[in-house]
Amino acid sequence: MAASNSSNSLSSTFYLTGIPGYEEFHHWISIPFCLLYFVGIMGNCTILHIVRTDPRLHEPMYYFLAMLSLTDMGMSMPTMITLFRVLWSISKEIQFNICVVQMFFIHTFSFTESSVLLAMALDRYVAICHPLRYATILTPRLITKIGIAALLRSVFAMIPLLARLAYFPFCHSHILSHSYCLHQDMIRLACADTKFNVIYGLVLITVLWGMDSLGIFVSYVFILRSVLRIASREGRLKALNTCASHICAVLILYVPMIGLSIVHRFAKHSSPLIHIFMAHIYLLIPPVLNPIIYSVKTKQIRQGVLHLLCPHQDSSSGLERAMLAFFKLKFFQIMLIL
């Protein structure tokens, strides 16, 4: 019977959903999504290229930033093909095995990004509280181990959750509520006991995100304590300014993540538009805004972008100010789109 259920599930076809009630406007709605994906992909690829090619950025902080860009793209890009297939009226169908693969990438890189943000918080802690030992503590070897551990932790955590889906019969409606597959969306369609998936999912979120967020909080407690010991006001502001981009990145990931979890668990009967809106914010906001925030707040990244755009010109303050104004303008334009 289990094998039969597995076979039925693997051959099942599910149907994705666009924006309910606005089907005739899907082609127009796809335009801002195209812009957001373009900005996200170009921004993160630019960060990766600059960190790889600029020797001045071969430091722990920028290696972690490169990891953040990779996880941003890994979390958002799997949704791109199915989203535009729905919005461009190509097809709403998706096979079960493809759906599981898409879920695996979305959720795995979501957990990995949380781990990377924890690593970046530890990086800021070492840089501010132990500046003389910064290079000796955060060696390239240790950074590589942290990145691999963050990825493997997320992969092994997701395998039991998704493996169980192969044994669920889906005898209810096969219509998903998003234009891509999410685990919490899939299990509500199963006509079987999903208690393990529900409890395991909650434990996974509580343990992984809880541990990461607690680690970030504790890191900033020590950072704040160390900053308050600095005598000059300028020194305190300079130290805190190095953390501003990371704090924004943490909020950009955790606020939509918490909002989406609350909506799925406590607002199941609310308007479908709320669920869809929160899911898109959760997957699109981090990859779009993180490169812009780090380009605005981090001088070295800003200079790297300027050198990439104008390789034969000196990084004069005038050009840098113009580029800073450009990034701020783009940030506000993106916020208006959202």
Automatic annotation (TrEMBL):
InterPro entries: GPCR_Rhodpsn, GPCR_Rhodpsn_7TM, Olfact_rcpt, OR51/52/56-like
Domain G-protein coupled receptors family 1 profile residues, every copy: 43-294
Gene Ontology biological process terms in this record: cellular response to lipid
Entry superkingdom: Eukaryota
A Pfam family reported for this protein in Swiss-Prot or TrEMBL: 7tm_4
PROSITE patterns linked to this entry: G_PROTEIN_RECEP_F1_1, G_PROTEIN_RECEP_F1_2
A GO term from the CC aspect: plasma membrane
Gene3D superfamilies, per database record: Rhodopsin 7-helix transmembrane proteins
Assigned keywords, A-Z: Cell membrane, G-protein coupled receptor, Membrane, Olfaction, Receptor, Sensory transduction, Transducer, Transmembrane, Transmembrane helix
Subcellular location(s) of the protein: Cell membrane; Membrane
GO molecular function: G protein-coupled receptor activity; olfactory receptor activity
Transmembrane segments: 28-51, 63-88, 94-122, 142-163, 198-223, 244-267, 273-293
Family designation: Belongs to the G-protein coupled receptor 1 family.
Protein name: Olfactory receptor
UniProt organism field: Chrysochloris asiatica (Cape golden mole)
The gene coding this protein: LOC102817041
